[in-house]
Structures are given as structure tokens and as C-alpha cells.
């Protein structure tokens, strides 16, 4: 089993790492798993998401349209400023305080501590993959990201009609952690032995369409091809 995570220090660490990546990366490098996007586009998106989350916590609604960096503005500095605002707000806001979130069962600011860590981790992987070899993702953190998709994001995708949900329940087993098993599927969906055994990092990347699924059971590959996460 994995231990609880201290989200604010993790968010501070990973946003600082992302800003550092931007200072060294080719901003025009294409990002394979975000078709049509460059590293620059990923950075503007992520900084905009941070602005949007700040608004969701402060105003309690998702109505903000993010402001991109000014023409000619240093992108790494712009991103770092958005990240500092996000981390500062979430650190100062009690995790139980009301906020608009993606989870109708958890309308608290604490939701965004976890969600933003995983958002940054996946997009940092995107940037590193675009310009070289990605750094490993901590297995415990990757597994928490798997659980977030299974427990929160995928049910929301089904509820919003973005996917019909899998015909087969998909059993996910992390081979690098003890007792790390999760089942992707709506209540009542049959379990008939469809399973993916892989490292926690690969399971996370599969769920976010960042890893190749062609070597898997075709039934598992079909489930993972669906928009299981936003």
C-alpha cells in the first residue's frame, strides 16, 4: 500500500521543476501525445490551468478564461509566476474550504492540491519526452494518479457522456508496489479477467494515453483507447 502524500511540498517541487525544464527546453519542440502542440503550448496550457484553479478556489466557479503570457515575455518566468500564485493560495487555504472542483463529491480546496500535482507531473513528462528521456515517476505518486483516474476522473467522464464506459471492467495491477490493485469500470460492468500488470508509472501513462497499448490484451487496449481521463 502507498503512504499518504504531502501535496503542497510536492506541488512546490514539481512546479519548480517544470519551470526549470522550460528554461532549458526547445520551446518549439513538438509534443507527441498532445497532437499539434509544442512545448510552448503545453506550458501556456499548464500556466492557464493554474490560473483557472486559483479562480475556482477563490470565486467558487469555473468561469475564468486564462490570460496567456504577453508577447515576448519569458515563458519560464511567466509560468513560475502562475505556479507561485497557485501554490501560495492552496498552501494558505484550509483543505476543507469550499471550492469548485471536478468532483461533485469533493467540493473542497484540498481536491486541487492532489489534482494539480498530477497535472504537473504528466505535463513535465510530456516536455521531457519531447526533448529527451523522461525522468522516472515515483511509483507511489504514479499509483495515486492511477487511483485518481479510476475513482474520480473516469466516473466523471462517464457521467458527462464523454465515454460510455468500458464493456469490460479492467483490473490494473502495479507490479512495483505491494497490494496495488484498482478496477476501472462503472458499477455493474462485468469482470471477466481483463487485466493489465505493469509498473505504476506505465499504468498512469496508459490511462493518460502516453504509453503504447498495442502489446496488451486487445480488450484492455480497447478500454484504454477510450477517453478515460479528460
Would you give an account of this structure?
The chain has 230 residues and is mainly alpha-helical. The protein contains seven helices and three strands; from the N terminus they run αααααβββαα. The two termini are 26 Å apart. The model has no long low-confidence stretch (mean pLDDT 95).
Question: What would the keywords be for this entry?
Answer:
230 residues, mainly alpha, 3 strands, Four Helix Bundle (Hemerythrin (Met), subunit A), globular, three-stranded mixed beta sheet, 6% strand
Topology of this protein?
Layout: H1 7-24, H2 39-58, H3 75-92, H4 109-131, H5 139-159, E1 170-174, E2 181-184, E3 195-198, H6 200-207, H7 218-225
Parallel strand pairs: 1-3
Antiparallel strand pairs: 1-2
Q: What's the short version?
A:
The chain is mainly alpha-helical and 230 residues long. The chain has 2 domains: 125 residues, dinb family like domain (Four Helix Bundle (Hemerythrin (Met), subunit A), Up-down Bundle), CATH 1.20.120.450; 87 residues.
